[in-house]
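Sample log: Alkylhydroperoxidase AhpD family core domain protein.
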Amino acid sequence: MVEARKQMRGEALRSILPMVKYSGSNVDQAYRHLVSLRASVINDCKACITTHRRDARADGWDEKRILRAEDWTNHRDRFDEKETAVLALTDAVTHIDGYESVPDELWDSVEKHFGTQGAHDVLVSILAINTFNRLSITTRTNADAIKSTIEFDHDYDATL
């Protein structure tokens, strides 16, 4: 078994960065936090959970808000309709298994809140974090090496 794997660098890594840049320019940071936290927990990507907890905290999110986003289905009352639509789409796309995975009603809800282009922009955010989750898991990115983190960022069993 391979103990450690080389981190992706160079052109291979640069090839996927445009999605992140696009998302950063077109999707509000609060929605990107919701997407990144939820998808990273679903995929059990420790490096991405650590990174996105740190980033959300840096933007003023407290630990309760972060944990609620990660486990939103048990805290639905803490999210408005737009946030719920984003989180539900994140779940559907992250768990995708055929055409029935993203029901028309769900897509329509996202479009209602964000418009067609906005729904596509949110989708790019979901695709980007899922890509990075898979990259970090496959290459065994070391969550302990992520800078500017606190104990909470690495507590993968934390609950409310």
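Observation: The chain has seven helices and no strands.
Observation: The mean pLDDT is 95.
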